[in-house]
Every structure is written in C-alpha cells, then in structure tokens.
Amino acid sequence: MPPAWPRSRPAGPPMARPTMGSRVRVKALCPPGHVRAPWYLRGKTGVIERALGEFGNPEQLAYGVPAEKKPLYRVRFTMSEIWGNRAENPDDTIDAEIYGHWLEEV
User: Fold this and answer.
1) Are strands 23-26 and 103-105 parallel, antiparallel or unpaired?
2) How many separate domains does the chain show?
3) pTM score, two decimals?
4) Domain residues for 95?
5) For each successive 10 residues of the chain (106 residues), what is the average pLDDT?
C-alpha cells in the first residue's frame, strides 16, 4: 500500500510566491513515496525563470487522492551549482520545472 499523503509532504511553511529572478533553493528532503523533485537538484540554489501556473499536485495524484492546486515554476540552475568544480562549462544552465512546495527562499 502506498504511503499516506501527509507523510510524504515536504515539511515547513509555504514560501511567499516568488517572482521572476528570485533566488530559491530546492528543499533537501527525502520523503517516502512519489515525489517530483529531482534528486540531483535537491539542496541546490537557482533562480526563478518564470511562473507556469497552478496544477494539481502530482504527489497526491499518484495515489489517487484529491489534489491541491500547487504553483509550478521554471527554475534555472548553473552547471557550477549542480556539479561544482567538475562542471565542464560552469556558466551553462539547465532549467527544471519544480512545484512551489519544494522551494524555499534563499
């Protein structure tokens, strides 16, 4: 049986709605169950590239429970943030779409 939703929700208060250019960090959590924050981005800092709207929370939809609407953001990370001094092109970037409940203010 899948874990109950409240156990898999990242803890902490929701952050205020970030705007384009806001610096954010992906929460470095490892909750059980279906989550939508890539492992390699957890704990990393990026910049909001844009807001994409609100969508049903896929972490709830995965278990067939009613889904709360959650804001989704495109967040831009530099290769140096992700790979450190091993980054071949440190200033190159990668964008990822991350739900707001996985982000915290920096």
Assistant:
1) antiparallel
2) 1
3) 0.83
4) 5-11+20-105
5) 43 71 94 88 97 94 92 97 95 97 94
